[in-house]
Amino acid sequence: MNLLILGANSDIAYAVGKKFAQHEHADICLASRDLRLLEKKVQDIKIRYRVNAEALFFDAVDYASHNDFFKKFDPKPDGVVLAFGYLGNQQDAQQDFNEARHIIETNFTGAASILEIIASDFERRGHGFIIGISSVAGERGRQSNYVYGSAKGALTVYLSGLRNRLCKSGVHVITVLPGFVRTRMTEGLELPEKLIAEPAEVAEDIYRAYKKPEDIIYTKWFWKLIMFLIRSIPERLFKRLSL
Ligand SMILES: NC(=O)c1ccc[n+]([C@@H]2O[C@H](COP(=O)([O-])OP(=O)(O)OC[C@H]3O[C@@H](n4cnc5c(N)ncnc54)[C@H](OP(=O)(O)O)[C@@H]3O)[C@@H](O)[C@H]2O)c1
Questions:
Q1: Element (H or E) spanning 211, and its range?
Q2: Residue 139 lies in a domain
Q3: Distance from the CA of 203 to the center of ligand 1, in angstroms?
Q4: Ligand 1 centroid vs 75 CA: distance in angstroms?
Q5: C-alpha torsion 212→131→203→109, nearest 10
Q6: CA 236 to ligand 1 center in whole angstroms
Q7: In a domain, 54, yes or no
């Protein structure tokens, strides 16, 4: 199996890559912006799991480069993990639209741009799987992160549509909805310790979802319950909360 990971410097993505290298003996292509960091991961994966691994430059918001980026693959990947994301700063996004745009483009527009190209290839070949990492933040808008949340919400809906389109061609799309995960993204944030997952735990859930296969997973599992409760709060009450 050839696995392409987009945004592979993500702590979660790297843990997923290691799972596929270990259990599927997959060759791994790690694509992201910071090639120096990626090269270290490539060496680690090669030594640990004796699979082929390579690093490629990929920028999710350089839309014009996406066609050429994917055209170069020979053979084409069997599966893609879409992991890039940008939490950004909600306060800054309210003051400066450039920050808001960066959050929206990284989490949604960039994903739609590259996934449309990959989806067409998978559809034509009648083969492949896509694992898209969205977020529980996309399930309901909150004042503390609604720019990021709305971009993730759009990604979740996009992945749902893609799954609907591609299942007819034997291509499976998995939507991953993590809660809090201990990664570079959440470094320095004050989060409830009991609710934080490690990247390796999230990777385990993702790999299990791939094997089953599942359509949508919350990770860790209790976020399904938490989000059910959060979605159930009537809007007239919810709007008064400081979440
Ligand atoms: N951590 C959480 O609590 C949490 C919760 C829910 C959902 N998520 C989602 O899970 C995914 C992985 O996040 P993580 O927590 O593992 O975060 P992370 O360690 O901060 O990784 C995010 C990665 O995205 C890459 N990236 C950002 N902008 C990019 C761009 N324009 N082009 C290509 N790559 C880009 C960065 O790669 P470079 O270093 O190469 O720039 C970075 O390594 C994200 O989509 C995130 O939104 C995370």
A1: helix 199-211
A2: yes
A3: 14
A4: 26
A5: -160
A6: 33
A7: yes
- Tokens standing for residue 37: 């960091």
Is residue 164 in a domain?
yes
Which residues have C-beta atoms less than 6 Å from ligand 1? 7, 9-12, 32-34, 58-61, 83-86, 106, 110, 133, 135, 178, 180-181, 183-186
Please tell me the distance from the alpha carbon of residue 39 to that of residue 47, in angstroms, as a whole number: 12
Structural domain includes residue 243? no
Of all protein residues, the one whose alpha carbon is nearest to atom 1 of ligand 1 is: 181
Tens-digit pLDDT string for the chain (243 aa) = 999 999 999 999 999 999 999 999 999 999 999 999 999 999 999 999 999 999 999 999 999 999 999 999 999 999 999 999 999 999 999 999 999 999 999 999 999 999 999 999 999 999 999 999 999 999 999 999 999 999 999 999 999 999 999 999 999 999 999 999 999 999 999 999 999 999 999 999 999 999 999 999 999 999 999 999 999 999 999 999 988
Supply angle C-alpha 232, 233, 239, rounded to 5. Answer: 140
**Ligand 1 test: best mutation among 37, 84, 114, most atoms within 8 Å of CB?**
84
> Residue 86 is part of which domain span?
2-238
CA of 26 to the centre of ligand 1 (A): 22
Query: Distance from the CA of 122 to the center of ligand 1, in angstroms?
Result: 24
Domain count, the chain: 1
Q: Which residues lie closer than 8 Å to 110 by C-beta, 6 or more apart? A: 60, 61, 63, 84
56: domain CATH number is: 3.40.50.720
